[in-house]
């Protein structure tokens, strides 16, 4: 299915803060888009589950329509999927991972629930959440 690129919105659960798109842009210019973006329908728009770097590049290249694969998933599955597909491609920075865990904690998840949900050691989650406590205490 192809849709207007303006109907696709990034996931609010995208952990990435930094997107290196230079190599990908060259590949898409040379070979075209080799894999469709993965989305879920959210009212009048589509929420991106997989493909934010591709979406950014396609916008830069002036594409008006893009191929999509639409999946039906609940919020919890969407959140987990966004985290996992991005981590598979490239590890997160400490800041990206810490912000993501904090977002989930701010939504009411305990650190051990976050760990279980994402298949990450709960002490790892706690250590990343402590980044924000250190910043608050140091005035940064």
TrEMBL record:
Its GO biological process terms?
chromosome segregation; positive regulation of sporulation resulting in formation of a cellular spore
ParB-like N-terminal domain spans which residues?
1-87
Q: Which GO terms describe its molecular function?
A: DNA binding
**One GO CC annotation, please?**
chromosome
Q: Enumerate the PANTHER family for this protein.
A: CHROMOSOME-PARTITIONING PROTEIN PARB-RELATED (PTHR33375)
Q: What is this protein's name?
A: ParB-like N-terminal domain-containing protein
Q: Which organism is it from?
A: marine sediment metagenome
Traced from the root, the source organism's taxonomic lineage reads: unclassified sequences, metagenomes, ecological metagenomes
